[in-house]
Amino acid sequence: HPTPGVTPNESLSPPMRTHALTIFLLLCAAGCTGKVRVTRSMQPTSQPTSQPTAEKTMDDGAPSNHPAAKSDSGARITRSDAEWQRLLTPEQYRVLRQQGTERAFTGEFWNNHADGTYLCAGCGEELFRSAAKFDSGTGWPSFTAPAEKGAVETEVDDTHGMVRTEVHCRRCGGHLGHRFPDGPAPTGQRYCINSASLRFRAATGGHGKEAPRDQDKKAP
Fold first, then answer.
1. Residue 26 to residues 18, 19, 21, 174: CA-CA distances in angstroms?
2. What does the pLDDT look like over 138-176, one tens digit per residue?
3. Is the peptide bond prior to 186 cis by the omega test (within 30 degrees of 0)?
4. 71, 58 in Cβ contact below 8 A?
5. Are 122 and 140 in contact (CB under 8 A)?
6. Which residues contact 205 (CB under 8 A, 6 or more apart)?
7. Catalytic site residue 192?
8. Would the pTM of this model clear 0.70, i.e. be above it?
9. What pLDDT shows up at residue 25?
10. Cβ 138 vs Cβ 177: under 8 Å
11. Annotated active-site residue in 120, 123, 169, 192
């Protein structure tokens, strides 16, 4: 319906009449309120278009600050002492969490010659491979190097009246053994590790050959 006071002017020239008619139709479309709604095409093009960034999530939808997001492979693990006692056997707990040492020639893997990978018994981190294992004659599993750089960490151990290099799992901090500078080539290092701190994942088929014996009898 026509808006009061707004009518096409018959005396206007054709261009002006067209312009007036356009204004008339716009006012009608606005519901005769005298206000014209600005459409998207009429808005300034300089308006910011950025939107807030959503919080990153894991594949399962858990936010990055959710506890589940911190348990992915490779992330450091922190558990209470009670949790470790519940998850580990008494011997594993004594070695891994109390820096204990198993008796020589009693562990499960000191004489293991199979191909495979040695994992941390506390968290499953890959620590050593059979290709780096050699028979040191000490009664403990011995390796020339970790499976990957950074898989284990070391610190000075000055207990029992000795100064040694203690080796622990980078991921969960579990005690593994000690490192000595008397190993065979190519590294010259001997990682003397407790069987109780390890789990073994066998390779598919075949058996490995360990390096020649090293008669050093130092404990891990």
1. 12, 11, 9, 77
2. 999 999 999 999 999 999 999 989 999 999 999 999 999
3. yes
4. no
5. no
6. 115
7. yes
8. no
9. 58
10. no
11. 192
